[in-house]
Design a protein that fits this description.
alpha/beta, binds 5'-O-[(R)-(carboxyoxy)(hydroxy)phosphoryl]adenosine, 365 residues, five-stranded mixed beta sheet, binds zinc ion
Length: 365
């Protein structure tokens, strides 16, 4: 069976083609067009720009994916697309294309939850018999829009046990990076600077440790209030005063307002990153123990973070728990994970109706 999937839930346009047989699967093509540059100058994602770009990129990526897979669209056995959660006007593009192809070629259509794509992604590459190898696990999904702990008992059997009550972990990385004058997306920037930093220099809050839910807005505010005490002007304050340079140097062409202090920036990044990691690791391990599950999985953009992966691996092994992380190329948004979820679902007999609507607030559990 060959599945083609589209992912257009946010600012990435992606198409993947996956071939599966009874014993495994092979990724034939995976194309991703990032729109980061188009949105960066606005300081966030502009839905109208995202959907216009999906309309431009999706047909090109379909052609490129089919060429890479050496397959004609008529040879595809099922068409899938992300139907939520995400931006309505963006979701509509991918879902409409997949539905059109399914109707045109008389093949099944599968609407896939973006979060199911993330939570199954750690199993990509090792699955053999569909559901059989989907061992029960505590799944930590950490992305720009979501921070969730889900108990996975099998395909489609998901129980939400914790979620953020305010900002998602990736959102906190992005907002703090912005305060520090770093580029979007902030996670990779903060990770890069944190490598040279002291994670113990600033004692940022670890919120809601007694709960299965998460909260990161207090941490963001703590950074925000600390900066003036360090004589660093947060970037948005500078901008509101009509000063365009950031609190920290952006590049050689930037006129510096603050003395260049790489050590301070590195320590801030490392301390902030450690506060997030401590919370994510503690809650994930606690959930595995509470629900008596001996496997934890991590997925989503923030799970690219090498320090998070290292500390989650150490904590898991100290507690006799196995850790499976999505491969780094599968952590940020892509269509391969959507194709994989669609393949597992198609094999298990699931199919969606083409009248099924997209849902910006679609729940996974
Ligand atoms: O899963 P994703 O691509 O999109 C959503 O579904 O949200 O995640 C994007 C998020 C962004 O907030 C980005 O800053 C964060 O993942 N991210 C990271 C890293 N790489 C991406 N956060 C921390 N460390 C990283 N290395
Ligand atoms: Zn995502």
């Amino acid at each position: 069976m060959i599945v083609l999937a589209l992912e257009t839930s946010c600012d990435e346009t992606a198409v993947a083609i996956l071939r599966g047989d009874g014993s495994g699967h092979e990724l034939l093509a995976s194309e991703v067009a990032s729109q980061v540059a188009a949105h960066e100058k606005y300081g966030g994602i502009v839905p109208e720009i995202a959907s216009r770009n999906h309309l431009i990129f999706a047909p090109r990526l379909l052609d490129r994916a089919a060429a890479a897979a050496k397959a004609r669209l008529a040879q595809i056995d099922a068409f899938a697309a992300t139907t939520g959660p995400g931006l309505a006007s963006s979701l509509m593009i991918g879902a409409s294309i997949a539905k059109g192809l399914a109707i045109g070629f008389g093949k099944p259509y599968l609407g896939i939850n973006h979060l199911e794509g993330h939570l199954l992604s750690p199993f990509f590459g090792i699955e053999r018999d569909g559901d059989n190898n989907l061992k029960p696990n505590v799944s930590l999904i950490v992305s720009g829009g979501h921070t969730m702990l889900i108990i996975v008992r099998g395909l489609t059997n998901y129980q939400l046990v914790g979620r953020t009550v305010d900002d998602a972990a990736g959102e906190a990385f992005d907002k703090v990076a912005k305060m520090l004058g770093l580029r979007y997306p902030g996670g990779p920037e903060i990770e890069r600077h944190a490598r040279a930093g002291d994670p113990k220099r600033f004692d940022f809050p670890r919120s809601m440790l007694g709960s299965e839910n998460f909260s990161f807005s207090g941490l963001k505010t703590a950074v925000r209030y600390l900066l003036p005490k360090l004589h660093v002007i947060p970037s948005e304050v500078e901008e509101s005063r009509g000063i365009t340079t950031a609190g920290f140097p952006r590049g050689p062409s930037t006129q510096l307002r603050c003395p260049r202090d790489d050590k301070l920036l590195a320590d801030l990044c490392a301390s902030f990153q450690q506060a997030i990691i401590d919370v994510l690791v503690a809650k994930t391990i606690a959930a595995a123990q509470k629900y008596r599950v001996d496997l934890v999985t991590i997925s989503g953009g923030v799970s690219c973070n090498q320090e998070l992966r290292r500390q989650m691996r150490d904590a898991s092994s100290r507690n006799g728990i196995e850790l499976k992380s999505a491969e780094p190329w599968l952590c940020t948004d892509n269509a391969a994970m959507i194709a994989f979820a669609a393949l597992l679902r198609a094999r298990a007999g699931f199919e969606s109706h083409v009248t099924e609507e997209i849902d910006p607030n679609l729940k996974v559990a």
